[in-house]
Amino acid sequence: MNRLTTTLTLRLLPSLRLLPHLILTLSCVVAAGAEVSTDRPAMVAPDDVNCARLKSTRVMRPGAPVNCSQLQIVRFSYIGFDDRLHNDGEVMVMAAVAPEVRTIFSLLLARRFPLAGAHLMNSYLGDDDASMADNNTSAFNYRPITGGGAPSLHAYGLAIDINPLQNPYLLRSGNGRVDVSPAAGKAYVARLPLRPGMVDDQVVQIFAAHGFPIWGGDWRKPIDYQHFQVSRKTAEHLAKLGLKEGRTYFENSIQAYQSCLVRNRKMSESKRFCTLAE
Fold first, then answer.
1. Which end of the chain has a smaller Cβ tally under 10 Å, C or N?
2. Rounded distance between C-alpha atoms, residue 62 and residue 188, angstroms
3. Which segments of the chain does DSSP mark as H helices, in order?
4. What are phi and psi of 173, to 5 degrees?
5. Distance CA 95, CA 140 (A)
6. Would you give the DSSP letter of residue 149?
7. pTM here?
């Protein structure tokens, strides 16, 4: 058995020492039953073949707020529900945020947080329902928000869905009925006790510390436990920037969010306030 030691340091502001509930430095030792693959680059731009496949599978369509050149594939290892290491994880995100997304999945691996699988939406012909039914962790997919309307943050490559089965989408109708997606997620509508693969507070903090402060589990209607995203304002601005400028802007937005949390730590709605203040 190989032993992988990963030291992962979250973004640190000196005054954050006042917040003991935030984990600022994570030093994790991961014992894995398989060797981590090193023959694939961790982040790669889609080539012409991949871009053509995005279009042929309707993951990328005319009107998308970003083009293929603005995206990157993030590759990572993860622990499966079989408690084994898998080296085939892939999500496609906006290139400007790819390093932070890579760190997020490294932290999930260090925690041994299980994923059922993570495959590009090409494999599902852009069908979000099919991806959710397969309990697939995913990111970029050009589609409107559920229920129609504006493009989803997935259409920017700036939203990530984690284990849809264990973290379902809930929509309560006027008569009190709750629609659950995927349907098999009904077993996870009750959030306690926590079971493997369910998003918990530490997972929420990991995403927030790396630029995805909005969690659908905090929403009232709908509730989307699987979903993490940036603000729409951030997404629209990033879509207008080149790679270097976009990465600088994204890093600055993370620092501004953390600083806001410190300044407003006594505010009950500080997370929501700081997200809106971006």
1. N
2. 36
3. 48-56, 98-110, 128-133, 201-209, 232-238, 243-263, 270-276
4. -90, 175
5. 11
6. S
7. 0.86
Q: What are phi and psi of 77, to 5 degrees?
A: -100, 155
Q: What share of the chain has pLDDT > 90, as a percent?
A: 74
Distances from the Cα of 247 to the Cα of 16, 37, 207, 221, 242, angstroms: 23, 26, 17, 32, 8
Q: How far, in Å, CA of 34 to CA of 84, rounded?
A: 7
Give tens-digit pLDDT for 111-159.
Answer: 999 999 999 999 999 999 999 999 999 999 998 776 667 889 999 999 9
Nearest to 30, CA basis, from 15, 55, 8, 61:
8
CA dihedral sign of residues 225, 231, 236, 237 = negative
Whole-number Å distance between alpha carbons of 122 and 136: 12
DSSP assignment, residue 151?
B
SS3 29: strand
Distance separating the N- and C-terminal Cα atoms of the chain: 45
